[in-house]
Amino acid sequence: SMQHLFVRDCKLHKLPSQIGRLVNLVTLDLSNNPIASQQISPDLSFHNLKTLNLSSCRLTSIPTHLFEKSK
Question: Mind listing the pLDDT tens digit for each residue in 3-24?
Fold first, then answer.
């Protein structure tokens, strides 16, 4: 399954919920997209993520639920 995903400069305004299905993702580059904190689904999480690039996005904070282990 996919481990590295690079979607920089793609004009994404929100994260597609389908990204959450990539359970083995270790690298995610979302840089240079106009994503804002409130546009990140509370159901989305990245348990195995090691590298996350959010540079030049419109985030004012990073939701902690993105990195919480499922119960």
Answer: 999 999 999 988 887 888 888 9
Q: Note the pLDDT of residue 59.
A: 82
Does residue 62 contact residue 40 with C-beta atoms inside 8 Å?
A: no
AA identity, residue 50: K
Q: Which helix H or strand E contains 61, and what residues bound it?
A: none
* pLDDT at residue 62 is higher than 60: yes
Start-to-end C-alpha separation, the chain: 22
**Cβ burial 11-39 (10 Å sphere, 16+ → b, else e):** ebeebeeebeebeebeebbbbbbebeeee
Q: Would the pTM count as exceeding 0.90?
A: no
**In sequence order, which residues have a C-beta less than 8 Å from that of residue 1 and are 6 or more positions away?**
22, 23, 24
